[in-house]
Amino acid sequence: MAEPRLPRPSKGIKQELDAERKERVPAGQFLTEKFPVLTFGPTPRIELKAWRFRLFGLVEREQELTWEQLMALPKTVVTADFHCVTQWSRLDNTWEGVLASELVRLAKPSPKAAFVMAHCYGGYSTNVPLDDLLQGNALFAFRHDGKELPADHGGPLRLVVPKLYGWKSAKWANGLEFMEKDRQGFWEQRGYHMRGDPWKEQRFWDELT
Ligand SMILES: Nc1nc2c(c(=O)[nH]1)N[C@H]1C(S)=C(S)[C@@H](COP(=O)(O)O)O[C@H]1N2
Ligand SMILES: [Mo]
Question: How far apart, in whole angstroms, are the C-alpha atoms of residue 118 and residue 140?
Answer without folding.
Answer: 11
